[in-house]
């Protein structure tokens, strides 16, 4: 996987990507695979052209349709939490958005399944991920509250929008020992890791976060 991406962007990480990875390391990201993926991922292609000069800042940015590309620190933090117990065979991502988080996950595991409710965002993300030769990603235009049961169960699930409560379908689609990384809340949100142990779910709170909402219902 890495080799494909590297060859597509000139055989090495970019200077901007490397600087961003260094910044995130200074802010407490320790996983070297995650830092390497950040260094190699061309974030500028995932932001609107007019904001390209801010692409390697450690900030969230608007991507249209009222949505945002997540802050690099939180992308790295959630990725690192997701693989802390070992590399999962596959990852389910809810909220494809720009596809930037997807590009990081695709460098960390064999296969990424990503669900997005806004068709136009999904379509753009798909094109961008192909353009950098990441082909180990399957996408679904669907409601993330339902997960993607036919592809599960998953050792790792990441949700990149805030849910008012933890979606039951996602808990059910975890393998025994699997982990779900999810921001939960409304105005105030907290990032949680939920680990499945048989029919029990062990919850750990990580830190306060700010995400767009995981919208219930209709697709766009
Ligand atoms: N990881 C993305 C974050 C995008 S913002 C990035 O860094 O670009 C969150 C995304 O979740 C938005 O694209 C939004 O459309 C999507 N989303 C919100 N509710 C959803 C739902 N119920 N099902 C699927 N996707 C949803």
From TrEMBL:
Q: Where in the cell is it found?
A: Cytoplasm
Q: What is its EC number?
A: 2.1.1.77
Q: Reaction catalysed by this chain?
A: [protein]-L-isoaspartate + S-adenosyl-L-methionine = [protein]-L-isoaspartate alpha-methyl ester + S-adenosyl-L-homocysteine
Q: Does the keyword Cytoplasm apply?
A: yes
Asked if the record carries the keyword Transferase, the reply is: yes
Q: Name one GO biological process term.
A: protein repair
For this UniProt record, give its keywords in alphabetical order, as a comma-separated list.
Cytoplasm, Methyltransferase, S-adenosyl-L-methionine, Transferase
Q: Which CDD domains match?
A: AdoMet_MTases (cd02440)
What HAMAP family does this protein map onto?
A: PIMT (MF_00090)
Know the name of this protein? Protein-L-isoaspartate O-methyltransferase
